[in-house]
Design goal:
There is one protein chain. The protein folds into 3 domains: 168 residues, Reverse transcriptase/Diguanylate cyclase domain (Alpha-Beta Plaits); 75 residues, DNA polymerase, domain 1 (Orthogonal Bundle), CATH 1.10.150.20; 150 residues, DNA polymerase, Y-family, little finger domain (Dna Ligase, domain 1, 2-Layer Sandwich). It is 40% helix and 19% strand. The strands form 3 sheets. Strands 5-6-1-7-8 form a 5-stranded mixed beta sheet. A hairpin with a 2-residue loop joins strand 5 and strand 6.
Length: 426
């Protein structure tokens, strides 16, 4: 048996944990640079606030209805996510939890006796909410895909389901599939859903009734067959025991204002390279290739949201590395080659590719400096920055007064990760 635990309006829930007065009131959270709406509470949804819509378009609804608005606070959300996942691991066992995203995780419940699965599902919900303050929905079924459908039903009518839905019998699964449209099935995007609807397949029940041969021919081969089997209650998507290594790592950001100076772009590129290098070391890899890109405005008279073609360049490194200092140097040099004076820039980014395990890197006897010393230094920097946040230790090339950083004018305090921002109760 599989379960999925999904946090309800996760970013909004994180804000509510430290602002209890916001419970049962409309809340929205904005994207980078406060541009779009990326999370809405149920109350905000009922007011007509659109998901992923531009903030300025919804501002009249927000101001009229006194909706609480927050900039994205990723330090807070990351820490709260870790607390939720640690709670799930404590309840189900570390080996039975697969973190799927920042706000949801799959659980293998094969170790739970069948007659106690329902009780355990409710205990999961109650314990996560009690220990973390984050509201969650739980879906339970024989397969991951059916569990996602169960979770969707649980979230769709929270008052009736109490945020928990179990599809344990064939009859329960049949009813759930009949009321689930194909565009609501996990793994089927909007474009493909339209194709299925044009073929007369409108519900999940219609789809699971199709022959496996048809799925193989029309739904991407083995992937389509697995989906059909999952909908029929036959587990075909296994738990991932280990986090898969990424084949490419990127860090990109929109600037909080227009940037015209080379030194500001160099600070941004050095900062993004440092962040990408951290991600690289976190999965114990090194990169053979580094790419840099910058995105200019279409012209100096166009609006902030319009942009011209991306300008990029790359270089293959002499040897694969994960050391920040060895990555910043070529990244800044690439920027020198593509920067055009007089242009206005909106965005920049760094990509690391050609990834290999860092233990496979061969040392260079003639290289200045020790590989082990560099590794120790990078580990120390990562540990300090992880515990203290905000790049407490950084390279000078990253800059000090980075007013080009993305806007976060409405960000709440980082209550759970900064001593000087702890919640004060008076």
């Amino acid at each position: 048996m599989n379960a999925i635990v999904d946090c309800n309006s996760f970013y909004c829930s994180c804000e509510r944990v430290f602002e209890p007065k916001l419970w049962n009131k409309p809340v929205v959270v904005l994207s980078n640079n406060d541009g779009c709406i990326v999370s809405r509470s149920d109350e905000a949804k009922k007011l007509g606030v659109k998901m992923a819509g531009p903030y300025f378009q919804a501002k009249h609804i927000i101001e009229k209805n006194d909706v609480a608005v927050f900039s994205s606070n990723y330090h807070l959300y990351g820490d709260m996510s870790m607390r939720v996942m640690d709670t799930l691991r404590a309840m189900a066992g570390k080996e039975n939890v697969e973190v799927y995203s920042v706000d949801e995780a799959f659980l293998n419940l094969d170790h739970i006796p069948p007659d106690k699965v329902e009780k355990f599902a409710y205990e999961l919900k109650e314990t996560v909410e009690m220990w973390t303050g984050i509201s969650v929905s739980v879906g339970v079924a024989p397969t991951k895909t059916l569990a996602k459908i169960a979770n969707h039903i649980a979230k769709k009518d929270k008052a009736t389901t109490k945020c928990v839905t179990l599809l344990l019998t064939e009859e329960e699964q049949r009813k759930a599939l009949q009321q689930t449209r194909v565009n609501e099935i996990w793994g089927i995007g909007g474009a493909y859903a339209n194709k299925l609807i044009n073929w007369g397949i409108t519900s999940a029940w219609d789809l699971c009734s199709m022959p496996e041969e048809w799925a193989h021919a029309n739904m991407g081969g083995v992937v389509g067959v697995r989906l059909i089997k999952e909908l029929r209650g036959e587990p075909s998507i296994i738990m991932k025991k280990e986090l898969e290594r990424k084949k490419m790592i990127a860090t990109t950001r929109m600037f909080g204002r227009h940037v015209t100076e080379l030194y500001e772009l160099k600070e941004a590129i050095a900062t993004y390279t440092s962040r990408a290098a951290e991600k690289l070391r976190r999965q114990f890899c090194a990169a053979k290739t580094i790419s840099v890109f910058i995105v200019p405005k279409e012209d100096n008279h166009s609006t902030y949201f319009s942009h011209g073609p991306t300008i990029s360049n790359y270089v293959n490194l002499p040897s694969a590395t994960s050391f920040t200092n060895e990555l910043i140097r070529p990244a800044v040099k690439l920027l020198d080659d593509i920067f055009e004076k007089g242009r206005v820039y909106k965005k920049a980014g760094v990509m690391l590719s050609g990834l290999v395990p860092d233990q496979s890197i061969q040392g260079n006897f003639f290289s200045a400096g020790s590989k082990s010393t560099n590794r120790f230094l990078m580990s120390a920097v990562d540990n300090v920055n992880f515990s203290m946040r905000d790049d407490v230790v950084k390279f000078c090339s990253s800059g000090v007064n980075k007013d080009w950083k993305m806007r976060q004018e409405l960000r709440s305090k980082r209550h759970s990760t900064r001593w000087d921002e702890l919640k004060v109760i008076s």
